[in-house]
Design goal:
Strand order of the largest sheet: 3-6-7-8
Strand content: 25-35%
Bound molecules: zinc ion
Radius of gyration: 19 Å
Number of helices: 6
Oligomer: single chain
Number of domains: 2
Largest sheet: 4 strands, mixed
Helix content: 25-40%
Number of strands: 11
Length: about 220
């Protein structure tokens, strides 16, 4: 069931109001086209009918992929947490992975990661390690890094790209090394699926801050 609702929106450029249709939930089994629009982020792209400017509107969305057994909840608030918790318990029993996403970028990346059948905890650790390596090997300073992105996994090796405004650098990390690191400190990396946990850069940085006593 793909539930939509109409809402009034004020254009951030010309200030005039118009109606937009937003999705409250997307189920990939029932509408594969919407999966493509979510992965590309196009589902959040709108155009003002008055001044014809294109822009992204991030709104709460629940994305369910029954084939790959994951549910993503894109939200900026905790407003619906109670309702989501009840939903969560049922889904976890059915073997689903549940994640909250705070940005469209996190949301689209999670779709790719879970469709690839990769652990997003492993991905966040790989991104963290790549970022540290990028800084330590003096390729740039932290302020210059614009993004750290998951690319793919080939033959057990994960590829991560660290980008600045004018360059990008790829890091290749064997997954078994990352999994070993996580297994050695399984308590630190533990998450509770029923909480719709955030597993993102803020999350992994907070884990390392806690352990070094900076939190
Ligand atoms: Zn406008």
């Amino acid at each position: 069931m793909n539930k939509t609702r109409e809402m009034k929106y004020s254009c951030p450029y010309c200030g005039r109001e118009f109606d937009i249709t937003v999705y409250e939930s997307v189920n990939t089994e029932q509408d594969p086209d919407l999966r493509d629009a979510c992965l590309s982020g196009d589902i959040f792209r709108h155009s003002c009918p008055h001044c014809h400017t294109d822009f992204m509107i991030q709104y709460p969305l629940v994305y369910a992929d029954p084939a790959h057994k994951f549910v993503l909840w894109l939200t900026g608030t905790n407003a619906e947490e109670e309702a989501m918790r009840k939903y969560a318990r049922v889904l976890v029993k059915q073997g689903y992975q549940l994640r909250r996403c705070s940005t469209v970028r996190e949301f689209t990346e999670k779709i790719q990661i879970f469709e690839d059948g990769v652990s997003d905890i492993v991905v966040e650790l790989a991104k963290y390690d790549s970022f540290i390596e990028f800084i330590d090997s003096r390729h740039g300073n932290p302020a210059e890094v614009t993004s750290v992105e998951y690319q793919n996994v080939t033959d057990g090796v994960m590829k991560i790209n660290v980008r600045t405004d004018d360059k990008g650098l790829s890091f290749l990390i064997p997954i078994n090394l990352l999994e070993e690191e996580i297994r050695a400190e399984s308590d630190r990396f533990a998450i509770n699926e029923e909480d719709f946990p955030l597993v993102n850069s803020d999350w992994i940085i907070s884990l390392f801050m806690e352990s070094s006593g900076q939190a």
